[in-house]
Specification:
Layout (H helix, E strand, L loop, with lengths): L11 E9 L9 H8 L4 E8 L2 E8 L4 E9 L2 E9 L6 H10 L5
Antiparallel strand pairs: 1-5, 2-3, 3-4, 4-5
Length: 104
């Protein structure tokens, strides 16, 4: 194409799932245990949105990856955002968590 530039936007994957679990706290959830065992790979924080406390894991290097976990009434809500670009999507994560209605 003459006179125009074409830029590819980074591919972004957004995954949301809800499943029934038989744990009394998020500390017992295998996905959280795995990320805590890999503290050299993931950093952990907490985020409160709409009265819900999420445990958040960011991948420290490589592609942008963030995982948000929330547990209520034996239902586990997980949001995962993965981007192959260098863009930080933390604000997008906060906006998504603020707007989502967790039907659990």
């Amino acid at each position: 194409m003459t006179g125009t530039t074409s830029q590819k936007k980074p591919k972004i994957n957004l995954n949301i799932y809800i499943r029934e679990v038989f744990v009394s706290s998020l500390d017992e959830e295998p996905g959280i245990k795995l990320r805590r065992e890999r503290s050299s790979v993931y950093s952990e924080s907490k985020l409160n949105k709409n009265g819900r406390e999420y445990i958040i894991f960011h991948k420290k290097s490589g592609a942008y990856e963030v995982n948000a976990f929330y547990l209520h009434n034996n239902k586990l809500f997980v949001l995962n955002i993965l981007s192959y670009g260098s863009e930080n999507l933390d604000e997008a994560l906060k906006n998504i968590l603020e707007s989502v209605e967790v039907p659990i």
